[in-house]
Amino acid sequence: MSLYTDYLAEIETRKTQGLNPKPIDDGALTQELVDQIKDQGNAYRADSLNFFIYNTLPGTTSAAGVKAAFLKEIVLGVAQVEEISVEFAFELLSHMKGGPSIEVLLDLALGDDAAIAAQAADVLKTQVFLYDADTDRLKAAYEAGSAVAKGILESYAKAEFYTKLPELEEEIEVVTYIAGEGDISTDLLSPGNQAHSRSDRELHGKCMISEAAQQEIEALKLKHPGARIMLIAEKGTMGVGSSRMSGVNNVALWTGKKASPYVPFVNIAPVVAGTNGISPIFQTTVGVTGGIGLDLKNWVKKTDEDGKVILNNDGNPVLEQKFSVETGTVMKINSKTKKLLNADGSEELADIASAFTPQKTEFMVAGGSYAIVFGKKLQTFAAETLGVEMPRVFAPSKEISNEGQGLTAVEKIFNRNAVGTTPGATLHAGSDVRVKVNIVGSQDTTGLMTSQELEAMAATVISPVVDGAYQSGCHTASVWDKKAQANIPKLMKFMNNFGLITARDPEGSYHSMTDVIHKVLNDITVDDWDVIIGGDSHTRMSKGVAFGADSGTVALALATGEATMPIPESVKVTFKGTMADHMDFRDVVHATQLQMLDQHGDNVFQGRVIEVHIGTLLADQAFTFTDWTAEMKAKASICISNDETLIGSLELAKSRIAIMIEKGMDNEGKVLQGLIDKADARIAEIQSGDKPALTADDNAKYFAEVVVDLDKIVEPMIADPDVNNADVSKRYTHDTIRPVSYYGGDKKVDLGFVGSCMVHKGDMKIVAQMLKNLEADQGKVEFKAPLVVAAPTYNIIDELKEEGDWDILQRYSGFEFDDLFPKSQARTEYENILYLERPGCNLCMGNQEKAAKGDTVLATSTRLFQGRVVEDTAEKKGESLLASTPVVVLSAILGRTPTVAEYTKAVDGIDLTKFAPPLQVPSTTKSAHF
Question: Which residues form the Aconitase B swivel domain (predicted)?
Fold first, then answer.
């Protein structure tokens, strides 16, 4: 059978699922289409022509290469196709975005046929996705005297690819659709358990919210044909938890506009909103598609006659509604006045200027942020090549420089890595900056989308600016099912060829790793001045400043070595007092959120960088704090380390990178060895005193300051999803932090989970030490609830084996992972035993393994969102409560939350993760488990 008949069979299968033919990315199949189009008598000719025009993916896919080559034949008259004129062939080339199409257009523009060259040049003037090989050809042709090349460069220098686009419509009519009340996690828009289908956009679109919601949205579109649907988080924030490009893709698929008539299921320009605005990382993803993200502010705190906020019985502010956003409400967005208006435009409802900054408006005009990023680079290249002054076309980057004001840590990093800013300018928070990216991480449930984005923007190799990049396999580590077997090797091959260090070697030369991506990125970040971009909201490192991002922004960072964003404001967190012996550092993390809310009332961390002065806590343990800041709704976190501690962290990173090299994971460019060399150079700078560890200036300006009093942390803390709170906006947030005594020692626990990126080697040792203690005290340890343990990395397991801790874990385990025979199906039932799972994300991801529906789970992970770790039943809501490792272990043994006395006895003599706040002078105190 041919590839084409196989494709027809797949089409019939998809019909039974209510799906259209899958977009074609395979060059061999596309060549069959071309052959059948050329054969006038072929029975499949008409369908092949339709698939070729409307269902072949652009960019650098192998299909795009074949399509571009055939269109070139048509333009040159080598092939004759009645249905595709020369003009239409050029139109199709113009929608292919880059890669092979640019090569063909350059061939034609720089060719001998003047008429064809003129047409090709006109198309090229609309294109922005050009890379070095393309611009080098243009430059060489111009220097050789080509008038056509000169004309193209002159157009680029004027940025006509942007200036000739239609302006953004002044008035945009929208009709509301409330997706839910309270914070809306991106899991609602793109569930983690459907991650396998994200690269199949039409199929994945069927998982957004619910089938009923999709039908309601379609009904609204029919009722209001001239309006755009605005998806709303009522009484909450839209897009919390992750950037998730697939979430925005789904919203755009159901409510946005078609990007191109010749590219299937790629929609842009969604409109999303939230009573409390949009999560910062999700807002970035909205910008990738040229969408609009609104902060509605339709609920405000009620005040009395004196202007004081009125509180309810729980001590929370009473909210009142300024205007209704009930589903089906028609409103108008005025992009010029930047106001949200009622249906007839007579009443102003909200100021939405923050959604229509000059930069965001450019994204909307261009159909997404990529076109602007590439367009700016192209304009700069053209002006420099022509030797002319570059006309100001794009909105100037906002540069804020406050004389006499020092710099926060994040401001220092941005100033150090800024690209294209005013020479000599010192920039403060609020400035818009193009910034060099040092480290990039791609994870496996969004990686296929990242590879698609790279293909779409015609990128073929990682930018030389990037020091190191890693493709993980941790999000699909739990179950090696047919979906993973189909997707992961394909992903690893693409990324390995692109230049990333990959968890799985396409040639099978080294053992496939499923180490948690954040742990690996934490190790390969070897400079406290680095900028890191990763495809997950928990891209938060203990060195440098890291930002979680959508798959597209990750692709952009890989391709260009840059990211564009405003310098965020910072909140300074310091510590005082003494940490009690029976407390674990995870309790300090929880207490930070609690004490912040007590001190400020509102979440001052949201959308800002947390500058945490940990100082004496080494990289693995400090990462516990920075990782958690994603759930604090912070944009990022900066960890301030003392010189001695930073050197220790860098030495640890070097040793782990060396292990990766020993396993054969380095590539031809010796990227990993380069990172070790960089770490050595940084250590030398610190030791010599030439460049001490990063610190903020004494006169830096912070949005707020939080002082965490360790003396107040007297018992373990638990983050509770508070699933039955009468106020839905208070459910599933990370703001409800309770002491373990709140539960009275009798809250039933159905399953315990120690794992995900929030644990380190010390946590694994704590599990082993607790089992030893309880065994010595009771003679035998019996679990009254299942305990799932997933180490973050293989290195940790190797070290535990060497130190004897793995033996006791094995002795109590009823299941131990086997990489030779990995699980092919997700576990649906749990026994009251210890499960030693494969390193990786496991239950925290919710895309493969889950607890039983309706369970109460106590976990060390970071996710307590509805349906993530555990789903609801009709009778009982699933709960995912978050706590320290010793609390989780003891709760699984008891089958309930412990009393303070039970907990204190169980951890007596155990080496918990300790923390001593840094002194005013550099301290040499090191954290435990180093």
Answer: 178-407
